[in-house]
Design goal:
This protein has 6 helices and 13 strands. It is α/β, with parallel strands linked by helices. It has a domain of 162 residues: TIM Barrel (Alpha-Beta Barrel), CATH 3.20.20. The N and C termini lie far apart (43 Å). This is Glycoside-hydrolase family GH114 TIM-barrel domain-containing protein.
Length: 265
């Protein structure tokens, strides 16, 4: 994967979003679906759809492009680890994998030169989202420092996240914070525009996002909160206005494990 041909200068301070007239955010009253396991026609009423950067946008109103900015994607792990071993956290000469996703390696954000090289690698992915017609990018695994065996710090990842915000805004797209409630304030200051959360009801942390962001899209899972508790949460005060429940593998309706439910608008 080429690392040349992109500006890699990191911002001196937090990345400022462009004028609000140039940024479109998801509609707080529109239906939402999270389709990272594969694209399919969205359920009735869904206008906001998140898909992987390798997929085409749904085109139902507002499209969010998933970019794994802090870990490798499974299909690319071996290639990146071989061609750019310095950009992957190494322990004992071996790439460090996410314990929950062992086919994903952690990107090494520990120094400014490494962050510059990662920015040069990820920028074409973000630009590709814009070229496909996506309205926003969500950058995943902001919290990779928590599973880095001490090789990364929260400051490393916040610096990397600020660079991703700058690149995304330069592409004309909004950027979503994906999880990481403990760093929501510095990310909001770094220019993040809205939030996508997983299990914020389950972990009682929704307010850490809703207090900062105008739009919060929450996904709860059948194997965590469960459908009955989800129905109760839909009736609770203070929940994110946009909240859905999905199967944890995010499979398509063709799979028997598929599940989708949304709180009433």
């Amino acid at each position: 994967m080429a690392l040349a041909g992109c500006s890699t200068e990191e911002p001196a301070g937090p990345a400022a979003p462009p004028a609000t007239s140039t940024l479109r955010l998801p509609d707080r009253n529109a239906g939402f679906d999270y389709q990272l396991g594969g694209p399919y026609p969205p359920p009735a009423g869904v206008r906001t759809v998140a898909r992987d950067r390798t997929d085409e946008p749904a085109g139902t109103g507002y499209d969010i492009c998933y970019v794994n900015g802090f870990q490798t994607q499974p299909a690319e792990s071996a290639d990146i680890a071989q061609r750019h071993p310095d950009l992957v956290v190494q322990i004992g000469g071996e790439p460090l994998a996410d314990p929950d996703w062992p086919d994903e390696y952690l990107f090494d954000t520990s120094t400014e030169p490494k962050r510059e090289a990662l920015a040069a690698m990820v920028k074409p992915w973000i630009d590709g989202c814009a070229a496909k017609g996506y309205a926003a990018v969500e950058v995943d695994n902001l919290d990779s420092y928590t599973r880095s065996d001490g090789r990364l710090t929260v400051e490393d990842n916040i610096a990397m996240a600020a660079t991703y915000a700058r690149i995304t805004h330069q592409a004309g797209l909004a950027i979503a914070q994906k999880n990481g409630a403990e760093i929501a304030e510095p990310l909001r200051s770094a220019g993040y525009d809205f939030a996508i959360t997983e299990s914020c009801i389950q972990f009682s942390e929704c307010d850490r996002y809703t207090e900062l962001y105008p739009v919060v899209l929450d996904i709860e899972y059948t194997d965590e909160l469960g459908p009955d508790a989800f129905d109760s949460a839909c009736d609770s005060a203070g929940r994110p206005p946009v909240m859905i429940m999905r199967d944890h593998n995010l499979v398509t309706p063709r799979d028997s494990g598929y599940f989708y439910e949304a709180c009433p608008a």
